[in-house]
Amino acid sequence: MARATDIKFMRRTLQLAQKGSGFVSSNPMVGAVIVKNGKVIGEGFHQRFGEAHAEINAIESASQPVRGATLYCNLESCCHRNKKTPPCIPRIIREGIKRVVIASLDPNPEVNGKGVEFLRNAGIVVETGIMQEESDELNRFFFKYITTMLPYVTLKVAQSIDGKITEKIGEQTWLSAKASQLLVHKWRSAYDAVLIGANTVKIDNPQLTVRYIVGRNPIRVVLDGNLTLNAKYRLFHADYSSKTIVISQGNQDKKRIKRYKGLNCEVISIPGGSNNRIPIKDILRVLVQKNITSILVEGGQQIFSQFISQECVDEIAVFIAPKILGRGLSTFDLENTDMGRDFKLIRYEECGADVLLTYRI
Amino acid sequence: MARATDIKFMRRTLQLAQKGSGFVSSNPMVGAVIVKNGKVIGEGFHQRFGEAHAEINAIESASQPVRGATLYCNLESCCHRNKKTPPCIPRIIREGIKRVVIASLDPNPEVNGKGVEFLRNAGIVVETGIMQEESDELNRFFFKYITTMLPYVTLKVAQSIDGKITEKIGEQTWLSAKASQLLVHKWRSAYDAVLIGANTVKIDNPQLTVRYIVGRNPIRVVLDGNLTLNAKYRLFHADYSSKTIVISQGNQDKKRIKRYKGLNCEVISIPGGSNNRIPIKDILRVLVQKNITSILVEGGQQIFSQFISQECVDEIAVFIAPKILGRGLSTFDLENTDMGRDFKLIRYEECGADVLLTYRI
After folding, report:
1. Rounded CA gap, A76 and A128, in Å?
2. Which long-range contacts (CB under 8 A, 24 or more apart) does B244-252 make?
3. Rounded distance between C-alpha atoms, residue A125 and residue A69, angstroms
4. How far is A42 from A70, CA to CA, in rounded Å?
5. Which of A241, B24, B105, B293 could lock B145 by a disulfide, CB 3.0 to 4.6 Å apart?
6. What does the pLDDT read at residue B83?
7. Is the pLDDT at B339 greater than 60, yes or no?
8. Neighbouring C-beta atoms of residue A32, cutoff 10 Å
């Protein structure tokens, strides 16, 4: 089969995989397409964590017997058994699939390459690496998580041309274009959690929900070391369907913890580090245990700076509004500037009146 | 003739006009193409201030008689006589050109529309507005100058993602990618002058010449209110073929002025304003009298901020390096932030590892 055809069907496979965005973690997004005589006879994707895998959904949706067909799958099929659903490979073999085309090998050390080997040993033709770059990009949250057991962290910054996030310290400044806000809501529906500092809660009083598009709400995480918040903030609004997690430092005063009882939230205490602050990595380790494999960090300056200086950032998305503030709060405040070096520009695009610059480490 | 053909020849006309960049101000860049029976029979451009105009050069280069031909010219041909060369229009009429295609009307109030009228009265078919946007862009320096009698001012900023221009105050930080530096040298060869503050001279000791490409050097302007510089700075190097202009404030001490004697520079004193600083507009008015119709402002923070807060900026070109400095000197320091509002993003592009964002007012 021509490579152009493989690319066509893999593109469809990735589209299907994407449909699981926001619902499948800590699993990867996986799509599957079954093709026979050049025609798609079955499609499926992994829809929700704990439910059937893409390959099975595709096989079961097939409009005719899949014997002799080609299966497209963006991720190497699973062969390990210590998980919620039976492994897919025996089923693929049993159904008589003749050829399997894969975009990315599963970086999960329990699978990596073994799935391909398994299929080949059963006489199935396996091709890998078709649209791998797009596939790796799609599942970058999962890849980070499965190889490091830490969540993928993106800082979302909305700043002026001259790197200011607010005009006056302690006051909110609206900088982003509507198109940028829409995109952020889309991201919120894809990331497992959104994280901000208590100071930003006090100044902006944000909801951190998905409103401008249709999508599921993320878990909301507030770093509130000394438990200084209360019920008046919208973050604790009862209507909110997902959990709010408050991270506090060490053993807090019982009276303070009591204030949070009855609020729609969970308080997690983590010991502070040498400088009396909770090490960011400790926070990430706690959150990953709650199935949070991706975090969108939305501010403010101190939170951004701690993530950068403690090297806990995978991606920085900077929305630059067409304004010069001239004074006000800078996006970052780093004691040791060496920490902020070595980023790579991945993408640059227009977003309403703003520019969106995406950097990775 | 089809519009597509007109666009093709006008594109060539603009390419020719561009060749005058850096050499024709305070005149506009003008190109001319003469087409007969669908073939180019003559080409020309305005090569140097005071020399022949594009139309004349094209007519005189023609490989056959231009009678009955079409003349493409990006700018409306001149009919006024108070200038260095005779007006082009009588020559165009005399040569028997049948049709004239123009991109932009000449904003010079002495011409604006009168040239077209003159041609039409002579029975010549005139079309205007072909590729006008590109043509207006090409001659934006001239358009600003001729309509306001002030130079076109571009701030060239090289900053980190977080809007810092140096890591430590008083020290130079190299931020820009090689590709960005090349582009800046290209700009230097196109702008009439490059302007910086005395503080930047002391910290960076730049040459402000064109070295990375082949091109003519700009005039160098230093704002040195109290005449604090001396011969050790490269700006005063004798090799430099163009002038260096030092702008000082009010009546300076004779001993200080004496220090500048023998240096390859001119000292111009301008009275300070109410805050003991020279109003930027007064500087621009003095420079425009020296035939400087475009200025590239290269720093530092105080100079950038004065230009912005005194509303003397037409364009801001921001090179963003893929670094976070976290601390250091911000690009701007504005007392009144309202001054920095209302920019418009015109272009965004990759430049090596940097992003270049171009804003206009």
Report:
1. 8
2. B244/B219, B244/B220, B245/B193, B245/B219, B245/B220, B245/B221, B245/B287, B245/B290, B246/B221, B246/B222, B247/B221, B247/B222, B247/B223, B247/B278, B247/B283, B247/B286, B248/B224, B249/B225, B249/B276, B249/B277, B249/B278, B252/B226, B252/B227
3. 11
4. 10
5. B293
6. 64
7. no
8. 30
Phi, psi of B210 (to 5 degrees): -100, 110
Residue A157 identity:
V
* ipTM confidence: 0.87
Angle at B290 between CA B82 and CA B359, to 5 degrees: 100
Q: Where are the alpha helices (DSSP H) in A260-330?
A: 280-288, 301-309
Among candidate residues B43, B51, B55, B350, the one labeled active-site is B55
H/E element, B344: strand B344-351
Q: What pLDDT is recorded for position B80?
A: 64
Rounded distance, CA B95 to CA B100, Å? Answer: 12
Q: How far apart are CA A227 and CA A212, in angstroms?
A: 30
In angstroms, the CA A248 to CA A211 distance is: 28
**Which of B26, B67, B69 is CA-nearest to residue B46?**
B26
A193 vs A173: CA distance, rounded Å = 24
Report, as an integer, the average pLDDT of A275-292: 93
Peptide bond into B38 cis (omega under 30): no
Contacts of A299 in chain B (CB under 8 A): none
Contact criterion met (CB below 8 Å) for A233 and A201 = yes
The β-bridge relationship of strands A152-160 and A315-321 is parallel
Tell me the two tokens of residue B257. 């002025």
Q: Model confidence over A7-65: pLDDT tens digits?
A: 999 999 999 999 999 999 999 999 999 999 999 999 999 999 989 899 999 999 999 99
Range name among A153-162, B33-42, B166-175, B293-302 with the lowest pLDDT average: B166-175
- The sign of the dihedral angle between the CA atoms of A85, A89, A90, A91 is positive
What residue has token string 């090289």? B158
The CA distances from residue B204 to B18, B201, B299, in Å, are 32, 6, 10
For residue A1, what pLDDT is reported?
Answer: 46
pLDDT tens-digit readout, A157-211: 999 999 999 988 888 888 899 999 999 999 999 999 999 999 999 999 999 999 9
Q: What percent of chain B has pLDDT over 90?
A: 73
Residue of A157, A160, A162 best to disrupt the B interface, most CBs of B under 10 A: A162
> CA triplet A162, A166, A167: central angle to 5 degrees?
80
pLDDT (average), residues A325-340 = 82
Half-sphere exposure of A57 (CA within 13 A, CB side): 21
* Ranges of H-type helices in B261-300: 280-288
Name the residue among A330, A335, A348 with its Cβ closest to that of B162: A330
Is A161 within 8 Å of B308 when comparing Cβ atoms? no
**The model's pTM:** 0.91
Alpha helix (H) ranges present in A19-131?
54-61, 89-94, 114-121
Residue A330 token pair = 């800078």
What pLDDT, in 10s, does the model give residues A343-354? Answer: 999 999 999 999
Chain A residues with CB under 8 Å of B341 CB are: 323-324
**SS3 at position B129:** coil
Measured CA to CA, the distance from residue A55 to residue A32 in angstroms comes to 5
DSSP letter string over B184-239? HHHHHHHSSEEEEEHHHHHHH-------SSS-PPPEEEEE-TT----TTSGGG-TT
Chain B, residues 310-349, CB within 8 A of chain A, namely 316, 318, 320, 322-328, 330-337, 339-345, 348
